Amino acid sequence: MTSSTFQDTVSQFVLSKEQVQKIVDGLTAELVEGLSTTDPKNITQQPSFITRLPTGKETGLYLAIDMGGTNLRTAAVHLLGDGQVGVTMEKHEITQELKTGTGEAMFDWIAECTSSLLKTVALDMGNAELQMGVTFSFAIQQTAINRGKVLAMGKGFDLSGVMGKDLKDLLEGGFTRKNLPVSVSAIINDTVGTLVSHAYVSPSTKIGVILATGTNAAYIERASEVSKYNGPACDQMILNTEWDAMGKAEYLPQTKYDKEIDAVSLVPGFQEFEKMVSGLYMGELVRLALVDLIEQNAIFESLGGKVPESLKSRLAFKTLFMSTIESDNSIEHTAVDRVFKTSFGIEGLSADDRSRVFELVHTIGKRSAMMTAAACVALLHKANGASVNLDNADEITTIGIDGSVFEKYPHFSHSMMESMIEILGQDRASRIRLELARDGGCIGAALVAMVAHSGGAV
């Protein structure tokens, strides 16, 4: 009974070839739908107003900030040409108090962090206005290269006085209150930044992906396909897909644990794809499954079906713990003991317990990799014939991927590639490169700020 209950739970996270193909087809359909929809509730396929990738020859000094789900990074970026950059960067944790406070408090804090950076680099340009590129890892409705209205934020943010406001005005309001001569000349999404910055060093890059606390992607689309774009005429456009907000019940293989995560989230029914694959939620899926298994006495039988208080708190089981457990491939899985003793005060696990925890963690991690691969294939299909040519044996397409899950989670890139081979076939998949892209937010923002400020059409 115990074994079958455990296997029944784990099997919910195992995806068949048919389920993966449904994800590819479903996401492809939503990518197409997002190109034309003007429904304000549909935040997908946002035009970035960036119409070309960098050449690698750009030069100059620009400020940048990168606001993500966990940290704010401020940077002075020296573009040196030949794909080379020099970066002075500071990182600041965004506290829960800031995340759920007022917009004014948040943007005053960002201005203080920017002031700290300027002191660090001793940057004194007299009365000259400093140009800044901004990477904003949340949905905005872009109206120009340096303007955009803030849409639903997610990732634990619930700021008052921000929704529907222009991000340039919010940021420059903070800078003005702190007497900083900083002008926002470009606003990009973190995935757009990843795409632009990785293309600076690797010109075959056509897709940028973020896989960290949250997930998102950007790619290059024919402008003629983007019927909702109302800006100046252009041939192509980098789109911020906001694939985190995609995913419909008819094709997403949601378990009861996925549905529970969605139900108790700040915005139920929003970002359902992200809630199945990203770093904020993977550990919570493990915790919910463990709680269920303990209550059924199908794991940790020494607890007698009683769930420890330490495991009852939402988000108590971090995705970092999954990485630690998956890093230990020994038969004994001693890392399981360490995690549960140190973080949850649970000791005396049996060999079966350790093996089962490892299997559960591995299966949930692999599902995330497979679903991310399926989403990448959907983008490759949509871009094929435009910026991507899957049928040209001599053409390599690089996907630049930034984020802690891709960088640090054991075997993640390997699982993604295996899944892409399964979906695309060996020939086509062999033309795809998955590459780690670091610091795309700051460097990408600086690159776009430079071109925008110099008057060139980005």
UniProtKB/TrEMBL annotation:
Gene Ontology BP, a term: glucose metabolic process
GO MF assignments: ATP binding; D-glucose binding; fructokinase activity; glucokinase activity
Coiled coil: none
Reactions mediated catalytically: D-fructose + ATP = D-fructose 6-phosphate + ADP + H(+); a D-hexose + ATP = a D-hexose 6-phosphate + ADP + H(+)
All residue ranges annotated as the Hexokinase C-terminal domain in the record: 206-451
InterPro entries per UniProt: ATPase_NBD, Hexokinase, Hexokinase_C, Hexokinase_N
Protein's pathway: Carbohydrate metabolism; hexose metabolism; Carbohydrate degradation; glycolysis; D-glyceraldehyde 3-phosphate and glycerone phosphate from D-glucose: step 1/4
This protein's GO CC annotations: cytosol; mitochondrion
Keyword field: ATP-binding, Glycolysis, Kinase, Nucleotide-binding, Transferase
Hexokinase N-terminal domain segment(s): 7-200
E.C. no: 2.7.1.-
Top-level taxon in the UniProt lineage: Eukaryota
EC class of the enzyme, as a word: transferase
Family of the protein in this entry: Belongs to the hexokinase family.
Name under which the protein is recorded: Phosphotransferase
Gene: GLK1_2
